[in-house]
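ok here's Pyruvate kinase:
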Amino acid sequence: MNSNHLLLEEPIRMASILEPSRPSYFPSMTKIVGTLGPKSRSVEVISRCLMAGMSVARFDFTWGDAEFHQETLENLKLAIKKTKKLCAVMLDTTGPELLVVNKSDQPIPLEADSFVVLTPDQEKEASSNLLPINFSGLAKAVKSGDTIFLGQYLFTGSETTSVWLEVSEVKGDDVVCLIKNSAVLAGTLYTLHVSQVHIDLPTLNDKDKEVISTWGVKNNVDFLSLSHTRSGQDIREAREYLSKLGDLSQTQIFAKIENVEGLVNFDEILQEADGIILARGNLGIDLPPEKVFLFQKAAVYKCNMAGKPAVVTRVVDSMTDNLRPTRAEATDVANAVLDGADAILLGAETMRGLYPVESISIVGKICGESEKVYNQDSYFKKTVKYVGEPMSHMESIASSAVFNFKIT
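and the structure:
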């Protein structure tokens, strides 16, 4: 058997790896969602993000007021006119998110093997042994031994500001926790996540409804990212609310899966939602790390078969502070595309990172290279088998158009 035959048997030709990457003026088919924020809200930077491949701009209402986001959106409109690049608008809700309240904005050092009390009394000052939170029902939701995570990791990707806590005891409305690792909480915005515990708060809260009915309606947003979606009923209620507003009846709802509840009810959520966002930041806390990739593969496959977009998050965290992604991150992006992901969502990398344009550019390049070796024939056969034959008239026309285009 000669070497030429061996090369033909390889799924990817080794020589092709040394060929030049696809030129940037051929954008990847995988869409890139960029979160706009402090480091990416000027007309100049947004214009460069659009040219680099961003096709959806995400506005995260976990932080910042409507005025701040409106100014950013107006800059996006100017950038779209300047670059002649289309870009959709996604409104990301807060949902039942638990936050640490640090009014003083002073750094809070937490020492391993010491104790800290989580209290719903937001009038108290945050300190190394007392942390006010925005949820009064935590004491009823947790028990001794439960794991609680808090920190800015979900936003910045920095483990130096992440803290793991173990519930020691419950005293009235307060929760006493053992600190498992030392860290310094620096800043005002810290999320708190309780592993695999139901939080009795509405998925679409009053603040979300106010933002949607004012900012969302005013700007006729294209997508609503429904944070912490836990059931199909969450989607139905959100859609009913949008339909009452009238102007947003055509807005698509993307369910953000962030916990085990969303995983357990995934099939009914997929049936109701227009698309799925795999929020791997929270998922990586609610699930054991070694299980996240299994959920990603299963969820993306289900989305592919249902014909609904799958969006993967948290891919190049290190680019928040670095010009290039790690090798593992680059491979992660590629594997997400090869799994069948339709879009990649960038959070802190573009919102407050040092290299928003470069993050979009390199992710786009990785997606493009992955698409070059994606097995379209295998995907087509799997889809046809799942959908069943005969195809509908419209599906047949679409399939023939794509097939003939590929041949030519």
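+1. The chain has three domains: 24-96+203-374, 101-194, 376-408.
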